[in-house]
Design brief:
The complex is a heterodimer of chains A (118) and B (342).
Chain A (H helix, E strand, L loop, with lengths): L1 H22 L4 H17 L4 H7 L1 H4 L2 H19 L1 H29 L7
Helix pairs in contact in A: 2-5, 5-6
Chain B lengths: L7 E2 L3 E3 L5 E9 L14 E2 L10 H19 L9 E5 L6 H10 L3 E3 L6 H14 L5 E8 L1 H9 L14 E2 L2 E8 L6 E6 L14 H20 L8 E4 L3 H14 L8 E3 H4 L3 H4 L5 E2 L1 H18 L4 E9 L3 H5 L6 E9 L4
Parallel strand pairs in B: 3-4, 5-6, 5-7, 8-13, 11-12, 11-14
Antiparallel strand pairs in B: 1-2, 2-10, 3-9, 7-9, 10-15, 14-15
The chains are: A mainly alpha (118), B alpha/beta (342).
Chain lengths: 118, 342
């Protein structure tokens, strides 16, 4: 059941992205930022966390889940450390993810060469 | 108003007094083009688009250089016999052409006309020969999917999705050797295009950006020469693709020119849209160049076509102009080729 929920919700998020990409002049970069910022806004309003609680990785793995973590971290930081915490909280909450991205990105870049498309 | 230019007929067309002859031609394509509908016509099909080089840019340079060498060989000449090399490509500062010319040591004019470069080069070459400035000229272009994709669109490793209106840059090179004497086919007319900018800002929709300039060049060619489209056995545009080809046919019909029988587009012909998933068709300097030097000139030699009008089309934007929201200026140059001199 968990898997089905994650599959359906994650699929719907990706479907929204595909529909936008196919029907507007959005580039993939526009879409990425739009989803990230949507996650931040929905997260700050407390609307994204219920989706994560329901769908697990289906909602936390897409980039909007990253936005949600940024917002949650900033709010938590602000509550604990005041205004400085609002700046540091988001990075703290997502720090593990960011470090992993850099490390694995580096490893992949060293191991593989880009190939042409076919 | 001085009017001493005797070869000038009409506003944009020039008639060759001693039509330069096409001495030899050569085409090289990448693996994908080598699986397409025209595969039997290309002189050399690469199995690997890096061709033993360490980068795609180096590979493109090698493809152009080897293509020029093979064309010179095929014409029974050596590189010392060639008076000028007029070459271009799509990459910043046309480095693939200049690095190719570095190896060839032929007096070199590097030109940029984006995907219109093949007919730009043929036009300039024909005028130089008819003007008495040269006996042999090599007109060469190249393009490479992977070099163009990462310069104009996205890094290859990013793996983005391509839009349905996007075209596929042809990997390959084409070279035509023009000569002051010979048995044809001959370059008869050249019509130089003006820039027409319909205001398209989407670089994934170049067919629409280039079609208006192609229409303008065609209309001017027919007005200047007094010819009708039916005069030609084949009229070919460079890389308007499916989107631009339809626009061109529609608008030409509204202007009273019927192109339904003898017109097609190299970008439409080079790939199989359904089998090869190339969306709106082929593009790039090599798209028209390999179709002319692979298919058209070979079929002219066999007598299938006697009179053809070649018109490569170019989108003259840069990555910088696109990022700044500028629209795409389109251009198209036409060159007519005939089997007989008169």
């Amino acid at each position: 059941m968990e898997y089905i929920k994650a599959f359906v919700v994650g699929g719907i998020i990706c479907l929204i992205g595909q529909v936008i990409l196919d029907n507007t002049k959005f580039t993939p970069a526009h879409l990425l930022l739009t989803f990230l910022l949507s996650g931040v806004i929905l997260g700050a309003l407390g609307l994204y966390q219920p989706i994560v609680d329901f769908a697990g990785a289906g909602a936390s793995i897409p980039i909007s889940g990253f936005g949600n973590s940024l917002a949650k971290g900033a709010i938590k930081g602000a509550n604990e450390k005041g205004i400085i915490g609002a700046f540091t909280g988001g990075i703290e909450a997502t720090g593990a993810g960011v470090a992993a991205i850099i490390l694995f990105g580096y490893i992949m870049a060293v191991i593989f060469n880009p190939k042409t498309k076919d | 108003m001085i009017e001493l230019a005797l070869k000038k007929i009409g506003a944009q067309t020039r008639k060759m007094e001693n039509p330069p002859s096409i001495l030899s031609y050569y085409s090289i394509v990448g693996p994908k083009e080598g699986e397409g509908p025209l595969k039997d016509y290309f002189d050399l099909i690469l199995e690997d688009d890096l061709w033993g080089q360490e980068s795609w840019e180096k590979a493109e340079s090698k493809i152009q250089e080897e293509c020029v060498r093979y064309a010179i060989d095929k014409g029974g000449l050596s590189s010392e016999n060639i008076d000028y090399l007029i070459a271009g490509d799509l990459i910043n500062q046309i480095t693939p052409s200049s690095y190719s010319a570095r190896q060839l040591s032929i007096p070199y004019y590097g030109i940029f006309g984006a995907c219109s470069t093949m007919t730009q080069s043929l036009s300039l070459g024909a005028m130089l020969i008819d003007g008495g400035f040269a006996d042999y000229i090599a007109c060469a272009v190249s393009s490479h999917f992977s070099t163009a994709e990462r310069q104009f669109r996205f890094p290859l490793e990013y793996g983005n999705q391509r839009k349905m209106s996007a075209q596929w840059t042809v990997t390959g090179a084409g070279t035509t050797i023009l000569s002051s004497t010979g048995n044809g086919p001959y370059v008869k007319y050249i019509t130089t295009g003006k820039i027409i900018d319909p205001g398209i800002t989407d670089s994934a929709n170049m067919g629409s950006a280039m079609a208006p300039s192609a229409i303008d060049t065609l209309v001017n060619h027919f007005q200047d020469t007094g010819l009708d489209p039916s005069y030609y056995d084949l009229i070919l545009s460079g890389d308007l693709g499916y989107v631009g080809k339809d626009i061109l046919m529609d608008l030409m019909k509204k202007k009273g020119y019927d192109l339904s029988k003898n017109y097609t587009d190299c970008g439409v012909e080079i790939f199989d849209k359904f089998e090869q998933d190339t969306h709106a068709g082929g593009s790039g300097c090599a798209c028209s160049a390999v179709v002319y030097n692979g298919y058209v000139f070979k079929e002219m030699a066999k007598g299938k076509y006697n009179r053809v009008l070649l018109m490569s089309t170019g989108a003259l934007h840069s990555t910088m102009s696109t990022q700044q929201g500028e629209s795409i200026p389109g251009i198209a140059h036409a060159v007519s080729i005939e089997n007989t001199k008169e």
